[in-house]
Amino acid sequence: MLDTARSQRLDSLRAELLTLRSAAEDAERAASAPLSRVHPVHAAGAANLVRYVALRSRDLRDVQDRLTAEGLSSLGRMEADVLRNLDAVLGTIDAALGHTAPHERATADADPRFAPATPLSVHAAALLGGTADDRQTRIMVTLPSEAADDPALVTRFARAGMDVARINCAHDDSAAWERMARHVRDAGASIRIATDLAGPKLRTGPLEPGPRVVKVSPTRDALGRVTEPASVWLVAPRADGSAAPAGEIPITDDMWLARLRIDDTVEFTDTRGRSRYMTVVALRGGGAQIEGDRTAYLGTGTLLDVDGRETRVGPLPPVDQALRVHRGEIIELRPDEEPGFTHEGRHRVGCTVPEALEVIRVGDRVLFDDGKIEGFVRAVGVADGQRVAEVEVTLASPRGTKLRAEKGINLPDTDLPISALADEDLRALDAVAGFTDIVQLSFARSPGDVARLFTELDARGAGHLGVVVKVETVRAFRALPEILLELMQRPRVGIMIARGDLGVEAGWERLAEVQEEILWLCEAAHVPVIWATQVLDSLAGSGVPTRAEVTDAAAGERAECVMLNKGPHIEEAIEALDDILRRMHGHLEKKRPLLRRLRAWSHEG
Length: 605
Known about the structure:
34% of the residues lie in helices and 23% in strands. Helix 1 packs across helix 3, helix 1 packs antiparallel against helix 5 and helix 7 crosses helix 8.
């Protein structure tokens, strides 16, 4: 028999839970139009998403605390099925109160809408491959350019644990993408291919070219002794007159080059006016390798002499320039492609998406190069007949931060009037539609971007392909419920948490919170998630992981797929991630700890 006080507390909780349940059902009825358009396999997930959003629009912490105090479920795991979680708690309260006629509510037996939903694992298998019983979290690997001509490399990735091969359409060309895809098919029929459309990435325009000079330096130890000499190849002039690639210096006289012999001494005065001597150490393919123990700067036109025989250095590429930006300075953003420059602490740089400058407003934040430089729009005006935004820098290194050409620009407060599908993306779709399994949409901001992709896929006879929307802007995050409902009109869909740009726009201090909310919303919708950006980057790049990134990779077990980027040690990164995910699979499922027997400290491993 319950005491009066507890009975009153339970009655109060019951009333509040019934109010929450009514709110969830009201939201579902209000969303009947978008819900009627979702694909049948997503009907339950879409309805559950609407209910979940309705409940999470309220602050439930007080109710949770009171439920916990009564020894009841706190609804902390209600994402997968909102109504069943509410009904389970209501049923427990009814039993405790001794109600012989529980309140009327739909049950699995009475209303088919509340039948068990298609498990998230089934949706993940449909999109990412494998079966619902496989390892919960797949591994997506970004293929490097070498994969186009090295099928053995792709085979090694597959053997290491790659489940999905990602082809980044921002790099290489359609012929290379097709060769990559062919190598993936040869490596394993079960491996899915995902092609990533580049999208309208805002970047800085070109900068004024630097001097045409090459610096060659020896490597020295801590005592200043040369351990490796300065080395460079002299090569014949290129037929088209273009600059030689890095590591090579063209000369203007190929007959002079042909007469070189091992141990010849090449004398010259470098661009600083210093005399230098370098020795011929190798001859190969019509070129000559020269070495020396002093730093030298060779520029276009530098005179080279060997025993009185002279020639000159041919055309060299200009050195990449950078604007050194300090806090308090002004960056003038322009829509033109004229090379940027710096004059008296005022920097001028172009923006590759000029439409952005038509809508940017005073006070809007602007971030450059993954947030290394941050500022706000101080003024908007017209100069030389073009709309120009003056950005006052509020964040930069005390010694100044270098801003180079083709670095990302993020405008988290600006509503950009551009489609997520640029003309280049439509051409990429033409190229990949015949061999890809999944199309990944970059920089989506609204449901309309998703709808347009569906239209373009249908026009190419590719409506059957899986679609993944990358959430990498604050606007996409805020519109995620609507984007999900639009996306769920197709059967094989997913969401990628692109933590790079998303972290820049939302702020790194908010990234953890934002990615949690995305995981919750997608679980409520029963839509698989791809966890992306900087996963095991140190391991992939240097061969040695950091402790923090190993923990981050383990957290990826809460998603249905984890993406690795490129790097010289990517094969080791795949193997390590495979091992981490398999170990974590027995401990964690979404937010629910799995209480398997603990043995991490034992010799069983």
